[in-house]
Amino acid sequence: MRAELRRLMEAASIACPMRFRQRLHLRAIEEMSVEDVALRWPCRGHRAHALFRARGLLRERLSRDVDLA
Hints:
Layout: H1 2-15, H2 18-29, H3 34-39, H4 47-68
Helix pairs in contact: 1-4, 2-4
């Protein structure tokens, strides 16, 4: 079950645009704080929003994949 969930998460993250995928990787895999992830990109107003949007895209994709399974 755990391996299947990992596979679904990897597939869902790959389907995300690169700008969101990078943030997901830094937050989830590298276990960086939200602030540290945000500091990696220059545009202040969009830093936290991009991570929020990336999580939303991942959530949508996972819910679609899990519903199909």
